[in-house]
## 1
Amino acid sequence: MKKSLKEIALLVDGEIVGEANTQISSVNGIREAQEGDITFLANPLYRPLINTTKASAIITSKEISSAPKPIIRTADPSAAFTKVISLFSGKPLSDIPAGIHKTSVIGENVRLGKNIAIGAFAVIEANAQIGDNAVIYPHVYIGGNAKIGMDAKLYSGVTVREGCTLGDRVIIHSNSVIGSDGFGYIKVNGSYQKIPQTGTVYIEDDVEIGSNVSIDRARFGKTIIGNGTKIDNLVQIAHNVSIGANTIVVSQAGVSGSTRIGRDVILAGQAGIVGHIEIGDNVIVGAQAGVTKSVPANTVVLGSPANSISEQKRIFACLHKLPELFRTVKSIKDKITK
């Protein structure tokens, strides 16, 4: 399939600078692109590549006025390029055929929606519900009384335990577990005894969860993941956690039990959040930060233990001066000794 730059500009509501009849047949990154490809430039760090890329055209921000090759100026290059990717990619190659594979196991009283796809060796236990257009890949396990919404997509190896609920258009990548038991024990006569975890997990609409993520069921009530939240690979969400809408949780972050996280929050890579605290709306928690107390809304925190970004920057600056300070103190000590 080929599209002219003019057709692509109409799709992304962009302004063409250069030859509007340039023919585009594919999409690629700015470093990897070849003749016939269209690419994009969103990060200013890559601006020098505008002069070296082999792409036939580039989607840029409004700040770029000209380039050595045709460009489409847009308000949001990343969002525009996403539309163009969809235009050229068509149906994902990974989708499995509609229908129920003969090796899958469907329990009693399971309610299956219209136009669903269930792959080989998937297991769906009794009384579960699967919404219209859902895609269940091979070797997925869905426990009894679980509910899977419309247009959901569960990749191979996903486990959704009993009684858990997934909203519409939820995507879960391979080997993630929804509804594993919360980590709860009490010590009795020197030995640990398990505290029953009788609650569930409720995942709202348009959530995407990466691979090897664990979201624990609540001790009582629900562990909740809000609308539009995106969770990266290798994340741990403990029991009774509540995460608000449109939050980003990056790889290897961990959230301890009963913590409440607001909407539009960003937890960067390897951030650790203790239990029973509150993180306000629009908070940014920096990479490897250790949050030990509640954080008010509209705050950026860094460090371990986490501090406000302004305070933590001062701490980092002092740490860099420690070798010089050590030498100064040693010199003064030597003078006093003499």
## 2
Amino acid sequence: MGRDTVALDTIPLRVTYAPLAAQVVTYATDIVGHAVRLMYAFPLDTADSYLVHVSTNVANAPPGSMLLVELPQTLLPSQADTVDDLNHLAVSYRSSRGEVNSVSFSKLDSAEVRAEPGPINWAAIRNKYFLVAYRASKIPFSALRLQGVPRKGKIAEEMHGSIAMPVGVDGTVAFDIYAGPQNFERLQHLGGDLDQVNPYAGFLHGVVQPFATMVMKALLWMKRTTQLNYGWVLVLFGVIVRLILWPLNQGAMRTSMKMQRLQPELQALQKKYSDDPKKQQEAIMKVYKEHGMSPLSPLMGCLPMLLPMPVLFALYYVFQNTIEFRGVSFLWLSDISLRDPYYITPLLMGVSMFVMSWIGMRNSPPNPQAKMMSYMMPVMLTVLFLNFASGLNLYYAVQNIAAIPQQWLLARERGKQAPISSGSLDKRRT
């Protein structure tokens, strides 16, 4: 006590068991004249499965006393791909400022102690799908100490870590332990941003994480509402996203069509006023105004095309790290969180992307660069997506297929419009 440190696991403890509203196990002992009691309460409510409420009381504890709790040194692999599971080993913690930080085992040095000052709301050790988290009940943890362990191989499989908890004036320390799956709804139920124990996307975390949260909530709601397999939920989700974006894409594509029709006139103006940039700019602005456009119209027209990208990035990380999709089969796929063993979904994604691009190029002015990109991009993305989660490929393929009718309708609309000829410029300016 005080400046002395006593290891509780070296002292005999008396145990009592009390089945109340929660299953309660109490350990008691005396240390240097101080009565010590440890109580573990296991809630009977299934919503609180994997949760343990821990309270410790030290009678007449000296001021400044601390309870030191050692974190597990590691979590055993639970996946067929043990290397991937071990590479996900990390310690996460949330400061009282609201920041969630993650430190991979591979970043810890065995020759140096990494001290993270408090206050800290929770700290957890995790692998790909499971975690053991310690959450402060009332008084935040005062410090977190981490240190690496000499490696036995290339992968850092263990670490030493501990958290310090101030003993209250009444001699009590209280905290919760969650030891279970990284289930999104369970962790959200616990609160305190514990659902972000596995922060996504590195430096893009601030952008991707909100979309990942929204995507997970939408997919889980659709799953509960429809009772469909997650594969069909992804199909439905892809179609819904495309329908929501239909008006924006429609406006963007029509803006692009209008810009293509204006190109002959704009090129003629650039040629006519090549020696007078000021007049050239004024003439171009006048053309934009006459057609209800602005110099920002091309950029704004591209924006709706980029809106699905955050969702795509979010889904990439969701499929890589979300236990809800683990082991979910769909049609020929044994696990939508893993790559397609037959590469059907990435090939379907690539083919659908090519068809969508080919239809979109119909009735467009000749553009060798755009034509080359329409061939190259589907090939490049197919190769890139070959080993991505099959569910992600399924979603992307559905997005492409759902966009084909819109591309076809706009291609027909484009075919009915004649481009503005450069000769019309002289007629309108004379």
## 3
Amino acid sequence: MEKKIKILQVIPHLGYGGAETGCYDLAHFLPEQGCKSYIATNGGELLKFIDKKKVKIFKLPVHSKNPILILINAMLLFLLILIYNIDIVHVRSRAPAWSCFLASKLTFRKIVSTFHGTYNFRSKIKKFYNSIMVRSDLVIAGSNFIFSHINQNYGSFFLGKKRKLLVIFRGINTNYYNPQKILPIKLDQFAKKNNIDRNKFIILLPGRLTSWKGQKIFIEAIKLLTEKSDIPSFEAIILGNDQGRNVYKKQLIDLVAKHRLQNLIKFIDHCEEMPVAYGLANLVCSCSIEPEAFGRVSVEAQAMQVPIIASNIGGSTETIIENKTGYLYKNEDPIDLADLMSKVMQTKYDLLKTTGVEGRKNILNKFDVDKMCRTTFSEYKKLMGLSK
């Protein structure tokens, strides 16, 4: 009889981000493979959707960067590992990684880390702090871009050591992000609630309101777009919460007012079901001015069969097949972005439909969550010596 592997995932906050949804999806996949699944987290919106019969939750302050709490968390995790006989600890963020590293070494358990971002550093101290993510038995990069970043900046940590670095592309739930699964009444309700004119060409920019997500570039491009001819009547939607960044949101509102775009650009804080927002869009943009580790928006848009325009840096360059499933514009260049917007808006419906169909094929083939989970599970078994 094959051993039931017990996996503890540790993540600071179980919200709606890429790392969090990946943790959630894997946690529910593991019991289907005969594993025991556990999550340690401080909390988050996704907790209410966890199937408690399949996944056991431990609420710990693993979000904290306080050195004292990191040590306390290490001891609490040490106890959990022993009590529940955990085989593998899988950590997804730096602060809890220090706690997990200590606990796993004290209990002689395997540790896995997923590198979800570039974790920039400007000093040796910060680089040392980041390096905890590559001190695991297995280090997972969510894209080739992140793999290269790790090799370039932390490659020395793998020399002569029994550590493995590999790429496991992040995936999304293509059953959830499926245009065929959206109820028309939900589209109507969301449009009515937010006063969206569905007769117009809808351009959507999803993402939390933070400067590196490029909302200012998007607004500048919309301004340039209004100066072009032969384009259909349109509306632009900036969808995302400011998460307390009130000053930045005011800057965006002021920029919209400066360009007199109040009648064209809407700000929407939240959409409970993101497929609905994508379902209303004719075009999706991802305008990040810093490299995305994966580029989840680009993947979700393609899965929803909506043309995507993204900046030509980071993970999006790996998930978009240029001029087939989407388009890439020169990073931080609103002129190039506006030109591409205009090009898409003037493209015939049948060609846009083909782009959407090809986009979904691309995601089903490479970035489906089931593929991500199966590959990760396979690596778990290798760590445990249960398969070659």
## 4
Amino acid sequence: MSEPIKNRYDFVLIFDVQDGNPNGDPDAGNLPRVDAETGHGLVTDVCLKRKVRNYVQMTKVRNGEPEPGFDIYVKEKAVLNEQHERAYRAIGAEDELKKEDKKRKGGERVDEARKWMCENFYDVRTFGAVMSTGVNCGQVRGPVQMTFGRSVDPIVTLEHCITRVAVTTTEKAQEQGGDNREMGRKNTVPYGLYVAHGFVSAHLAAQTGFSADDLALFWEALVNMFEHDRSAARGLMATRGLKVFKHATPLGNAPAHRLFERVRITRKDVCKPPRAFSDYNVTVDWSDLPAGVERIEML
């Protein structure tokens, strides 16, 4: 792998949804997440990171197995404590797994185990992880952090009644006399344009080994993640913009919020509800950037 990155980055991710549910809320019957006070739509950072993980897991495969250094720690059906045990076996510390005292499991080998986890799991060295359950692999603060995605305008959440010409049990079929129909519900947003913000820390990258190659893969995942995450529930989703500000130094050369203010999104016609990306103007003021800040426009 290449050396850890030496520069700080701040970025703006713009994505949209049409006739779909970008991130259902299980506490609200899986309705699209909404800010209760303003009506703006929300997509959690966890949801976005999941799509990045899925993209890496799908693309970094060789002969059916993850490429070295690109395994995923938080993935479907994973047992996290078993991943910790893998680390201790890999560093030759199997004896630590046999200790009765859970608080002592790991002992003086925790730092070695943490390093192994960072080297082998892309999402650990990118997003960080709490790995102190079971045998202790420590905690990692990830160099890449993201905010919730928030819609530019308030969204409308719709609930649709749908039917299925089949039933699940023989009893239900007998009750209906052979009609065999079941009713269901589907929740969508007619259209929403969302904006999320992100940060890449060179200081934390030095601790986890997050490299320039890892960063390039992260940008690639953000641009393409919706292309490989299709489902009937999500409708039509797409990344519409990825605006990146690269700093000349590890600590940065300007406050992130000042750079984010340069990205402006406005409706072309405020008298009609937006129903497509073409209903918006997206502009970025790249002129007179602060000294030491470089423009990188991925999309």
